[in-house]
Amino acid sequence: MRILMMGAAVAVLAACGGGDEPSDADADTGTVAEQPAADGAAVLEPGDDFQARLQTMLIEAEEGSTITLPEGTFMMTDGLSLDVDGVTITGAGQGATILDFSGQRGSGEGLLITSDDVTLENFSIQETKGDGIKSKGADRIIYRDLTVEWLGDPDPENGAYGVYPVESTDVLVERVTVRGASDAGIYVGQSNNIIVRDSVAEKNVAGIEIENSTHAEVYGNVVTQNTGGVLVFDLPDLPVMGGNSTRIYNNDIYSNNTPNFAPPGNIVAGVPAGTGVIIMANDKVVVENNRFEDNQTVQVLITAYTEPFTDEDYNPLPRNVVVKGNTYGTGGNNPDGRLAEIAPLLGGSLPPIVWDGVTRWGENEDIDNNIVIDEGEGVGFINIGFGTYPMDLANVSPSMERPGGEAFGELEPVTLSHSE
């Protein structure tokens, strides 16, 4: 992938003439030569061939350097890539520096990072054909004060992910806004040591998703108008599995009722509209001190993985889940998807917390999922009581009795080596 991206970048530069040294003739036609700032940062000036000059700077950047983007809206026709360690890319601010990919050729991401110790801050990306910003194998990366968005109504043709770090250690996402992703607005996958905080995820299929990852904290975020708010998943057949130790706390998770617009076949295409938090097949997950309101299917859903799989190392059941100290407004009054089939059995609506009750898969023996519901007596809970999977409504044995799980202890705070 890295070779392909570099090849594409070289092709763009050749087509645009951006690989040539600027000359006096360039100045006459409006092309502006880049000048180093007083502190040694490379400052990209507006003007002709902006995209080609930016990609040149990304290719030629030195470790520890800063690339400063100017204020303005700049049209991009191809994706950008960075493969140099220790680079900071900074703009004039969210909404002040905008990289507009509405004319992008192909279906790749807007910006691809494949190097370590990179900071991305103070700019916006719009209308990419693929993912907004993707980083792969990029340790100690910082996404800060960024906006990634697709404008207009929800559209399955929008890019899948807004902010998309994967296969990384030490990931910080803070004060980021993502709108309109057809999969997940903020997604962290197959990674370790993660903080997602003080961000806004709205009008995506999934607002924030932590998938096949370990040691994550998601806090201080506003998650609204998505199909599903916060997802903590573990999936089979991936290079990194065994997701565990995620804490979701002090978030505002409300009005996540947008009809699902994920492309068919996508794993999140099955997320019911109106879901606040979904914990699926993950281990050691804590949901506490969040504020839930107006999630019309369910505020918190604890569920097994629901698709067939052949991965013998995969555990499809949620284990060691703690839900405590949250506040719940209205919700559960208009269930969607498979849960809409369950609601009539319960009087037409669902309580704030729902567990599917799957304790056994196939021919395996029952396990103790160790589900802990430590909420006030007035907070409703139901164990649907499927027992085994595949699910069969004929086998449902619902119970409002809270499971007798025991808290597994405190999760260690996530500390990042590259950030306070």
From TrEMBL:
SMART domains: PbH1. Transmembrane segments: none annotated. Residues 86-233 form the Right handed beta helix domain. InterPro entries: Beta_helix, PbH1, Pectin_lyas_fold, Pectin_lyase_fold/virulence, SO_2930-like_dom. This is Right handed beta helix domain-containing protein. It comes from Henriciella pelagia.
